[in-house]
Amino acid sequence: MSYHSPEKIQKSAVENLNEVKKKEVLKPKDRMAIPAQEMPNQDPVQRAKNLEEVSIGYSAEQAQLEAMRCLQCKKAKCINDCPVGIDIPGFIKEIADGNFQEAINIIKNTSLLPAICGRVCPQETQCQMACTVGIGLKDIEKAVAIGRLERFVADWERATGNVRIPQVKAATGKKIAVVGSGPAGLVVAADVRREGHDVTIFEAFHKLGGVMRYGIPEFRLPNDIVDEEIETLKKMGVKVETNFVVGRTRKLVDLINKDGYDAVFVGTGAGLPMFMGIPGENLVGVFSANEYLTRANLMRAFDKDHADTPIYASKKVAVLGGGNVAMDAARMALRLGAEKVSVVYRRTEKEMPARNEEIEHAKEEGIEFNFLQNPKRIIGTDDGRVKAMECLRYQLGEPDASGRRRPIVIEGSEFIMDVDTVLVSIGNGSNPLISQTTPALGVNKWGNIVVNDEQKSSVNKIYAGGDIVLGAATVILAMGEGRRAAAAINKQLSDELKA
Amino acid sequence: MNKVIYKEQLSEDVFLMRLEAPLIAEEREAGQFIMLQIDEDFGERIPLTIADADEKEGSITIIFQIVGKSTKELAKFKVGDFIPTLVGPLGKPTHIENFGTVVCIGGGIGVAPLHPIAQALKKAGNHVITIIGARNKDLIILEKEMDAIADELIICTDDGSYGRKALVTEPLKEICERDPKPNMAIAIGPPVMMKFCSETTKPYKVFTQVSLNTIMVDGTGMCGGCRVNVGDEVKFVCVDGPEFDGHKVDFDNMITRLGSYKKIEHDKSECNLEKEAAKKEAEL
Ligand SMILES: Cc1cc2nc3c(=O)[nH]c(=O)nc-3n(C[C@H](O)[C@H](O)[C@H](O)COP(=O)(O)OP(=O)(O)OC[C@H]3O[C@@H](n4cnc5c(N)ncnc54)[C@H](O)[C@@H]3O)c2cc1C
Ligand SMILES: Cc1cc2nc3c(=O)[nH]c(=O)nc-3n(C[C@H](O)[C@H](O)[C@H](O)COP(=O)(O)OP(=O)(O)OC[C@H]3O[C@@H](n4cnc5c(N)ncnc54)[C@H](O)[C@@H]3O)c2cc1C
Ligand code: SF4
Ligand code: SF4
Ligand code: FES
């Protein structure tokens, strides 16, 4: 797909909309004939040098056109594939009819963070995967752009300046602690607070939002959006305690035993970045993607004139891994001034777990992709800094347990790649802080907290959800778990109140 | 937000502050640290050991040396000012029990983190021998406090302006040669000092614990920036440490990693032992 300017996209949208509006009734055939609306993006050459959002968002005309493509299926499969079950045809119909306020109201019945999910949900493997239109046109890229429409109405509401603050019921006298302020924690806080319970979020960092703040970069998810969602929570009366590491500042069980919380939700996310375990990995210039992105995002190192936290000055960067995190790290390195950034991945593009859109955007910006390669060791200068990487070539063999074809090393295929920085992005283990300091809490062999189907842990009154349960997953899955946990917590509390 | 309730200048560039932090004061144990920022948006998160705590007052004590931007700014905070961001206690507490005879070696600012550990060791019934080293007389901190704890106190300065004119490794070696030899050593100070203390005790098979001061970002195990090689393993200092077996730590790699951003920041903390070490290494 080649790049089209926002002006050009808007021009054809206006023309198409006028054309479509001439028809009295739209038959399914007419709807399928409406061109799928492309997301207008910042020019790739410019955006590779700034941190502003890459995607500009649909115009009202584009949103309406895209909404008209929806067939309003009776058995809307899209709903089943959304982890929080948004009434997708319902809100899309309102957009098609120009009722944007009603559209956002429908979404907010089930989803708390539409501006965020609309941006970062892997829609193509969720709601949009089963979309009848995409299936009919035999192209998943042509499915109704549910996520973009969701983003559009959420942004529209924010732009009106009067975002609806959810109603909060009368105080019940029950208090709940939420540990971690990622999407799982935020959703629990909102859902439990709505019932009138007193909610306090405890966050280890000095800023709220979890990975949405320190991991996903500004150019994909602006901090302002995360801030606004958190503002809404505060307006609902949710209290927050930043710089509070549960397990250390206070033991998890002490929140219940000493501080009188009636229930606790643990949403501490994934933690501990994994490394390859190859020689040279502790040279200066090798960073986990977590560290690199945290320095850049949370600690604002991209703002070199103001931030005290330094970031490594790189010219040639290799990024190891093929997920969203790897794409973010690579694109951030480019924006911080690297001349050349190469993603090194063991398999081929087809097996990459990153979203297609992210891969396309990275390519447009000039990121190189080295498929079927993997480092064997990292080579340093005399003073211990990265100067090169020795890599091996691979070929694909039989599918493994994950269903992906397994990469097999080609013997004797060693070659040297010139790099001064290596960003390792091969996944995260679970953070042991809470489980280490809470011996009674059941965890599996990967350290993930074990919960039942109501998100209850092995310890009474303690619930958990999100990445700390699922392993590294997604924003919307974390939200879904938060929803379930909140429902169970609300039930526990209302039972206690009745008793 | 944590209020500064007491401030004292201990030497030319070393300061002591007592900060309001009731929860941390209640939970902290010897060996743990906090991280603070002098500005919530743009400040760096710097790790500092909890040198002492007063549960009744609800305060913790930090002792820090000015080495760069953040510590320089921190030194400007006055009594009544608030530290915008402070989190802790972080890291694993020191394992304390009655080991028998323990040698505690503190170099420069390292005496600050050593103090609560020596205190706890003494309380657990150990015979505590303390060695304090510094470049010169003016840089010696907490002498009185250490003297109160130690069964035996040895002070060394590089220039001989106070105590013995020696590097801390000299008396350490002598103590290792005693019969019976000490059961354990704990060395805290500049990385080079900890390296040479570990090398000194190794031939005598005296287990030596060191407290590593790597570069950190989050201090909760999320970034891996604090990683060090310990034996065949890679450890995260903020969650697996900060204390490790000095005989297994790859100090050279740690020292290289501490210099990651050297171009951007300058290092004032260089001590004579480091120069000595450089000379020694050049000779080899
Ligand atoms: C770089 C990157 C890009 C990503 N891109 C996408 C994407 O495009 N789409 C998508 O859907 N998902 C993406 N993800 C994954 C997604 O962000 C996570 O699945 C999601 O944020 C998990 O939410 P959570 O609430 O479980 O935890 P987190 O968002 O991880 O939040 C956990 C919070 O808990 C805090 N915490 C941890 N321990 C403690 C403690 N002991 N006490 C107090 N607080 C504590 C942490 O500081 C953190 O703020 C990405 C992840 C990364 C790292
Ligand atoms: C667990 C732990 C406990 C610590 N306890 C104390 C303490 O009690 N008192 C105290 O004075 N210091 C302590 N330190 C060191 C302290 O964190 C650093 O001196 C501080 O981060 C420097 O910040 P700065 O902005 O002033 O200097 P910067 O401008 O960041 O750095 C100045 C120079 O110091 C070096 N440096 C950077 N970070 C560190 C570091 N973490 N350790 C050593 N040198 C570093 C750099 O090479 C640089 O050249 C501790 C460090 C750790 C990891
Ligand atoms: S499956 Fe597609 S076409 Fe059908 S209702 Fe859902 S979004 Fe609309
Ligand atoms: S929340 Fe995510 S999965 Fe659900 S409809 Fe929106 S974009 Fe699709
Ligand atoms: S400081 Fe980030 S993992 Fe230790």
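DSSP finds 20 helices and 16 strands in chain A.
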